[in-house]
Structures
1.
Amino acid sequence: MARPISLELPPRDPREELHKRLEQAPVAHAEALLDSYELLQQLHDHGLLELLRGALSASDDLIETAVDAAKSPESVRAIRNAIIIGKILASINPDVLQGVAVAVGDTLGCYDKPIIEPPGLLSLLSQFRHKELRRSMALINKFLEALGNQIKLRGSCE
């Protein structure tokens, strides 16, 4: 009858394995270690390590202050308004917005303080002959009409 082969494994010591890996790390990762030492020195030179230590020691106070500021009605409105402005910008055709930017630059961008003399009544009426003026006025009227409809739907200010 066959006898079983005895297999005796030495006990595994995880600390010893970690120690061996740690001894081999400087050789295997020499370049990365040098880069990390250089980065640490730059962080120290610029005072960022002290700043991080201070922020970590005061983290509870910082978080509490930030939460209190974020809970205020003004902050909530500001965040909501930022989201709405983002939606507005996303809904505008970039070509149209580029046209607006060029028009603003053409009319206001070349002066420190725009000097525009108010036109006389006849001069003002003669400007209505230009299609470009009538086109932009129609666009403004359409915007104002849509704004008026929204005001009517939403009611008065809260």
2.
Amino acid sequence: MTTITLDEIKAQHAKVAEMITAFELQQAPSAMFIPEATISLSPGEHYAGLVLGKDGEPSYHLVLLPGQADDITWEKAEEWAAKQGGKHTSSLPTRREQSLLFANLKEEFEERAYWSCEAHESESGWAWYQDFCYGLQYGINRDHGLRARAVRRLVIE
């Protein structure tokens, strides 16, 4: 027969206490406050929507900028997009943002493929793009010529 020690009981007690705390956090009601905002748009800009922050990142509003680049490599598309914001910081959209753009502003895109700002995780020399005909996302060689659109982000503080 095994002898039970006080240290073993305390260790098990601490483990149960941690489990109870974790369980209570799962059950706690949560709320999300999204303040009302007035967003100034420059001529040709379109409001795409709200992007909810993940993993502690802040939420933000996404704005599609006017203009597009045609038949451009991924590196050139990134350079082009960075110059489109004027006084605002701009870039190619993320894959998540492209999904929002497809959902809310599809009519602002031709039914073609547009670069995202995301490099492919497992294929060196590849990057992700969004097809604005069917809404699918694929990876392709960065030297391929696709279209590009730029966005700017308005962080909610």
3.
Amino acid sequence: MLRRLSAVLAACVMLGACMGNGEDGLGLVGMGPTPQPGQLYTWMHPEIDEAWAEGYFGQGTHVTLVDRFIGSQFRANLGYGEMEGTHGFWTSTQISVIAPSAQIREIDFSYRAAVDLVPNKLNVMNLSYSYPGSSSSDIQNLTSAVIEHSLIAHAHAGNALIVKSAGNTSVAVDGVFGVNSNRKDLLNIALIGAPSAIFVGALDRHGTPDDPASLTGYSSFAGSDPTVQNQFLSVGVLSELTGLEGTSFAAPIVSGYAAILGSKFTNASPTQIANQLLDTARTDTIKSFDPALHGRGEASLSRALAPATIH
């Protein structure tokens, strides 16, 4: 397990995907000011404020983050002051700012048990990391890794909405990392076709029809597989405002959106919430939209919240 953990952490650093406060006591809290609930910061999409105005703050939902909450920290600013935090601290804080009423659980990579479900709540699980490998032994390690095995099982059973960062290798979600590599993100591969799993890429801004966004140069993309295209969303990552760059910080935005949807559609399943986000994505806010690059398009919280019910 420790060997696997070291490999994952090293790969996250290499990919730029790993750039933490939790009920499990596994988080490392950043030192400094704290965000104000219900405060829309400049990096956030204005549609979030519209959701709050309707009373949807993620109440009644549970978000689990598997991330790095112990170890090295770095400086960033989510709008309420520059401070130090671990990679997991920053992804967790993003979600807590977007969906301040969601219950959040933080699990460090060193956790050795399966990730369980919280009953009677929408379960969202944010995975802002990769599991690189290529050999049969790497695949065996993934299928036998207790945490990942449980996450993959939840996604394929539709028991939890799994939000996975697409990666920062500028290749397809299911592609090799580079010309001289045969390694892929095996966690991505394992989640392809799972009914309640979403891959998230990073746009360079919040797109509008008059000022469409582009996929960032580092972001992995949907690729040629129609199954992946149907599972792929993107959101704006405004790294120039926050200092947080990478699809690691795109995924928590979608996790926060999912929690907000769960606070309105209280009887919806994880698969229904996933489909609602995917089916209401916008293509008119993306420059030269291409399903092979952008999948379903840019996530739109206001469109996803618009109906009275979902099925």
4.
Amino acid sequence: MALSRAQKQEILGGYGDTLADAQHAFVIGFKGITVTQATELRSRIRAKGGKYLVVKNTLARRAVEGKPLEQVRDHFTGPTAVAYGADPVSLAKVLTDFVKESPVIEFKAGLVEGRPVAANQVSEIAQMPSREQLIAKLVYLLQSPIVRFVRVLAAAGPQRLAIVIDQVAKNKG
């Protein structure tokens, strides 16, 4: 069924509002995927805060002109879908886990932090720690010296602390 010009403009506008400005996206081929598998993939991506969109290639190529996703526009061939979201690591994990279970989708390319990523690098991205894990590690590393200092203060007592500070001042001066 051919689309009218108005329908194409509506689709193009929808792509422009959502897909074109994505900083983190993975272009995938889905030849041979069943409706059940597509629904399962879509729900897993949504659970991680992402979106899954089956695209019309010519309209998608037009929508990404001048946008970050333009760098991978050559991969909009054949049955194509785009998974995009705020966290590229969790999105890559969902996609690679799905590929292990049902190898009906293939990675064509990706975009992480506005930079193009080759299809074979998606599994490497999936092995990285998530944003939440990285923040937790950073907080721990920032908090650790302070906690150790407080423990030393509590164990040493105020008089010993004064002696240590006096010795440090004499050594520095």
